[in-house]
Design brief:
Shape: globular
Distance between the termini: 12 Å
Strand order of the largest sheet: 1-3-2
Number of helices: 7
Radius of gyration: 19 Å
Helix content: 40-55%
């Protein structure tokens, strides 16, 4: 699952959107292909989800609480929310190009760059030129980070169990099935919004 994934995307440094586009005219095209006014409409709709009904409010509240719980868990390991997904991907996939990592993480390039800088300073990742293409950068987990892997996986597993406490196996399966349907509905509803995964 991606970030803000496994958890649905808890992201370490959120991408900031400016609907006003620095004073651009409302009909100017936004990077996602929409006019600035259409992009603002999408962003306003997402921030007002709690006004649409009890399900929207509950989903928004659960998502926020989960991100807070994940952040608390990760701080104990010296990580920011979102960094665990990058590390899990690197541990599982081995060295990857930074451009491919940005696509996988579904985050703004500057956000991923800052995240990698912090992880590199902490000794968890290293970056080097790709021997196959010197213009590209390879990112890989360091050997020193291997001990962190088991702690991250254990922490996320513990958070999952805590999140689903009191639900039986059948209820957990049904919850996942229903959330998948809700996700598909929202995906269709936001298909023309910029930044869609």
């Amino acid at each position: 699952m991606k970030p803000e994934a496994v958890a649905g995307p808890a992201r370490s440094e959120p991408v900031h959107h400016d609907p006003a586009r620095g004073g651009a005219a409302a009909d100017d095209a936004a990077p996602g292909g929409l006019s600035a006014s259409a992009e603002a409409e999408c962003l306003e709709a997402s921030s007002a989800c709690a006004l649409g009904g009890p399900v929207g409010y509950s989903v928004a509240r659960v998502s926020r609480l989960y991100r807070m719980a994940a952040g608390k868990t990760l701080r104990a390991l010296g990580l920011y929310p979102g960094q665990e997904f990058v590390m899990l991907h690197l541990w599982r996939s081995g060295p990857v190009r930074q451009g491919d990592l940005i696509k996988t993480a579904d985050l703004d390039p500057s956000t991923v760059t800052k995240m990698l800088q912090r992880l590199e300073q902490a000794g968890h990742v290293r970056r080097r030129p790709d021997p196959a293409d010197r213009r590209a950068v390879l990112v890989e987990a360091t050997e020193e980070s291997c001990g962190l892997r088991s702690a991250v996986e254990a922490s996320l597993a513990s958070l999952e169990q805590h999140t689903l406490a009191g639900l039986g196996e059948e209820e957990r399966g049904e919850l996942l099935r229903l959330l998948s349907k809700v996700e598909a509905n929202l995906y269709a509803q936001t298909a023309d919004c910029p930044g869609l995964p």
